[in-house]
Amino acid sequence: MDKTLYKETREKQLVALTSVLAAILLTTAKVIVGILTGSIGIISEALHSSLDLFAALITFFAVRIADKPADSTHHFGHGKVENLSAFIQAILLIITCIWIFYEATNRLITGNTEITVTFWSFFVIILSIIVDISRANALKKAARKYNSQALEADALHFSTDILSSSVVLLGLIGSLFSFYFLDSVAALIVAFIVLLIALKLGKKAIDVLIDRSPSDIAEKIIEISKDIPEITDVHDLRVRSSGAFILVELNLHVDNQLSLEEAHKISHRYEKRILQEIKRCKVHMHIEPDNE
Distance between CA 245 and CA 85 in Å, rounded? Predict the structure, then answer.
């Protein structure tokens, strides 16, 4: 592993590890306060945070594996471990939503909605919002910097926590005025928010796992070829994602009067332009003489 990639991997691991520690803190605090107060809103948040913890652990190990170089059994590298991690996290979120929907609906139907609201109820939720904002911003920044779907998925977990914790906070305020049903309503809103995010995350992960071509990358590669007059055609272009990397395969036609060395230089110039425009991209091209 070269020094640049090693540095990137270390930074991604550090961000992921910090998220694990934050998730441990929030999960523990919410479980304790949720049990003491009987708040389904806080308990649903605790369950959400426990899955955040599991997801953060998955992310931590995923980013460690994903940047490993290609080997004899993984010729295209280990990048899709990140996408698999994101898909697993989406499944976990959907399972959480099903439980929250069931429990909150059951409480509303039976009328068993009364909870005990204390200082610690508000403290743990406000603390959660502050920590979640910090972690979500750090993860989003790293995800954009390194095109990491695993870190992006982890950022989505913490982002949904911000929204859901805010809704639970409103439910707790309502409970102060004996509107206890608002806690269960808040839990349902939490579940709905999380479900939407999980479905979006799952679709994105599946697209990569089944090698769906990124919509704009192929067009950009074709446009770059038009800036090099010696290139007469680009065909059989295939683009797919694998973790943080974009993998490109194509056939390149050049003037048939050019020497092998000249054609080779043109392909290098084209590849260099592609790498400048598309970060973390790996290109494999086959050069052919233009018969026309």
Answer: 15
- How many separate domains does the chain show? 2
CA distance 189 to 195: 10
Which of 167, 182, 209 represents a domain boundary (last residue)?
209
Domain membership of residue 223 as a residue range: 217-290
Tens digits of per-residue pLDDT, 213-224?
776 788 888 888
Tokens of 226: 């038009």
Q: What is the CATH number of the domain that holds 237?
A: 3.30.70.1350
Mean predicted confidence (pLDDT) in 114-135: 79
Whole-angstrom CA distances from 44 to 38, 55, 56, 103, 131 are 11, 16, 18, 9, 18
Q: How confident is the model at residue 72 (pLDDT cuts 50, 70, 90)?
A: confident
Query: Angle CA(87)–CA(91)–CA(93) in degrees, nearest 5?
Result: 115
Q: Which residues pair with 239 in a beta bridge?
A: 248
